[in-house]
Amino acid sequence: QFPGDHVMVLGSGVYRIGSSVEFDWCAVNCIRTLREMGRKTIMVNYNPETVSTDYDMCDRLYFDEISFETVMDIYTMESPSGIILSMGGQLPNNIAMDLHRQQAVILGTSPDSIDSAENRFKFSRLLDTLSINQPRWKELSTVEAALAFCEEAGYPCLIRPSYVLSGAAMNVALNKHELENFLSQATAVSKDYPVVISKFILEAKEIDVDAVARDGEVVCMAVSEHVENAGVHSGDATLVTPPQDLNEETLAKIKSICCAIGRALEVTGPFNIQLIAKDNHLKVIECNARVSRSFPFVSKALDYDFIATATKVIMGEPVEAVDVIAGCGKVAVKVPVFSFSRLHGADVLLGVEMASTGEVACFGEDRYEAYLKAQLSTGFQIPKKNILISIGSFKHKNELIPTMQTLEKLGYQLFASMGTADFYNEHNFKVKSVDWPYEDTEDEHCRNGEQRTI
Questions:
Q1: Closest CA to 334 of 210, 250, 167
Q2: For a disulfide at 158, which of 113, 200, 263, 300, Cβ 3.0-4.6 Å?
Q3: Which stretches make up the ATP-grasp domain (predicted)?
Q4: Of 390, 232, 197, 213, which is closest to residue 290 (Cα–Cα)?
Q5: Measured between alpha carbons, how far is 88 from 96 in angstroms, rounded to an integer?
């Protein structure tokens, strides 16, 4: 029997870097809210690790792949009142336009608006029409045009494919050779959609905005600051909410930008915006008309269920607009967990493509307490005696001087790679230099029994 009045929710599919339990939390909360509203639910997902595929979670469960053909077959058979795409991360968004072309009823933000946000070229053009600042950009048409743009705008430049999750094939090119190499990767990943090249801004702060809107009008909003500078993927970054370093003027600008983009895309449901701030200027990097991996974090940190609100909005229920940016008197910090030690040859340097395999969030009276709790929860141990330091640029070495003074006062024995040790010894620190070759030398007798590589 197929009664035809169910609401169909698409899950996030397999767990992998960039798409994990955060999206399942959103899908589960969506289903629970629908059931509380008295609606019958259909869940489509194919990951036995998820809670959304528990037999008692929904009224009808389809344990099948989330592809256009499969979803359309289920839709035709079940004749549901509509499909909710925005709770399952990137995978459901990727088939939004295909479902729309087959006249499937999409609940929430329209597929045309989803495409306007996901398609890098359309979104960059939209920001230009709204007079909202963004890094200088150009759509990739030919390699020659890309090279000319990068020469004119200046390196580094960021290559950004459309319709990808966790920064797949997104890269920062520092020179012509890297640009040509990364362009071939990006066009392979994003064959049917444009690849955009934009100027990569160094030493900028990144800000995440998670919001829910109804017919383009924002109902609730959360703002999270990144501890790391822009250029580290938001899934790998340390997030702090409520924001601690943003003044009222900057927050007002962020709200204004968020409301303008929400209206332009006529968002109904959840959406996420990423911005960068430098010298008190804000620029928008991207927008996704779906939940982001930080929705569960902000919902718990601010003690307000963004997913329940988004579900009610999508289903046309009345919802009062609330201001929850300031939180509930506590600071929450989310830190990433990495598996580099288990992956032989893994590159431990973070970049615009996501690498973390988990995360921990903790509350504190202030951000320092919350950050320390979160780090200790990941298995990090506070050093007892020795600390090895290796810092890249002259600017970063300078910035660390006050911290070095604190470490010396605490009685730590400091070690450093050759260049870093030279710098700090010149600044009257007692730092022991360590020969730190990139690879182990196989010649044992040359070492005199000492381990040279740390």
A1: 210
A2: 200
A3: 124-315
A4: 213
A5: 12
| pLDDT value of position 451 | 46
- CA dist 348 and 372 (Å) reads 21
The SS3 call for residue 107 is strand
Q: Are strands 413-417 and 386-389 parallel, antiparallel or unpaired?
A: parallel
Domain termination site, one of 167, 182, 199: 199
Same domain (yes/no): 95, 142: no
What tokens appear for 151 in the block? Answer: 């020469």
CB contact at 8 A, 378 and 394: no
Shared domain for 334 and 393, answered yes or no, is no
Query: Per the omega criterion (within 30 degrees of 0), is the bond before 402 cis?
Result: no
pTM of the model: 0.87
Report how far residue 294's alpha carbon sits from residue 360's, in angstroms, rounded to the nearest whole number: 12
Give the closest residue to 106 by CA, choosing from 68, 136, 138. 68
Residue 53 pairs in a beta bridge with none
**Confidence (pLDDT) at 5:** 85
Res 136: pLDDT: 87
Q: Are residues 154 and 270 in the same domain?
A: no
333 shares its domain with 401: no
Number of domains in the chain: 4
- Burial tier of 210 (Cβ tally within 10 Å: 0-12, 13-18, 19+): buried
* CA distance linking residue 447 with residue 236, whole number of Å: 37
- Residue 415 CB coordination number (10 Å): 18
Q: Which parts of the chain register pLDDT below 70?
A: 1, 18, 141, 162-169, 186-194, 436-454
Does residue 338 share a domain with residue 231? Answer: yes
CA 431 to each of CA 275, 390, 391, 398, 413: distance values in angstroms, whole numbers, following the listed order: 39, 11, 13, 15, 8
Task: Write out the DSSP string of 184-226.
Answer: HHHHHH-TTS--EEEEPPTT-EEEEEEEEEETTEEEEEEEEEE
Q: For residue 232, what pLDDT is reported?
A: 84
Tell me what pLDDT residue 148 has: 87
165 and 271 share a domain?
Answer: no
Cβ-based burial of 76 (10 A; exposed 0-12, middle 13-18, buried ≥19)? exposed
Task: Looking at the structure, tell me whether residues 245 and 284 fall in a common domain.
Answer: yes
Q: Provide the CATH number for the domain around residue 396.
A: 3.40.50.1380
Domain boundary among the residues 107, 124, 147 is at: 107
